[in-house]
Amino acid sequence: MKGTVYLVEDDDGLREALSAYLAFRGWEVRAFCSADDFVAVPIASTPSVVVTDVKLPGISGLALQEKKRKISRPVPFVFMSGALSVTDGVAAMKGGALDFLVKPVAPEQLDTALEHALILDAELIAGQRRAAVLASRLEGLSPRERQVHALLVRGTNNTQIMNALGVSIHTAKQYKSAVLRKFEVSTLAELIDASQPEIGSGQIGQA
Description:
Oligomer: single chain
Radius of gyration: 23 Å
Mean pLDDT: 90
Distance between the termini: 20 Å
Structural class: alpha/beta
CATH class of the largest domain: Alpha Beta
Strand content: 5-15%
Largest sheet: 5 strands, parallel
């Protein structure tokens, strides 16, 4: 899957080698020699992943993860380390890290981790966009239409809407039609689907 890899690695040789490999694999690469250089860089609105060493000069990889979580949109983190530390691994996963790779990292292992991360990020971006559309459509409803919408997404029929709101069946049908029109759907099933704020099952935790 296409996407952007933000690579943070202080070893010049390894950073250059990984950058070349990732570019060869078809990913856009933005490389940094320290977390301090990267921490304020905005994350792209397209599928992205951060690949960082745990031990870095200045801000550590784990501290970078925490700082990014507070100032940018959620993005998957994949950590690399020369030795697998249980403490670091647990801290990274609690912070929302997607994977923890031990150096030297096999190309296939890195590829798998990045593909997984980019797919998850694509799902997250799609979910955020869907939630924004839903919020906009809800904002466009009148107070009464919002009541009708809340009833409709629970599968309530016209008669039940009439009884719940104390209106005529004709008025209940009018409200239902207005809600469907404003959500740009034609059936109740489509409305229920369009009213779900998220799609997909991928989550990145707190990253």
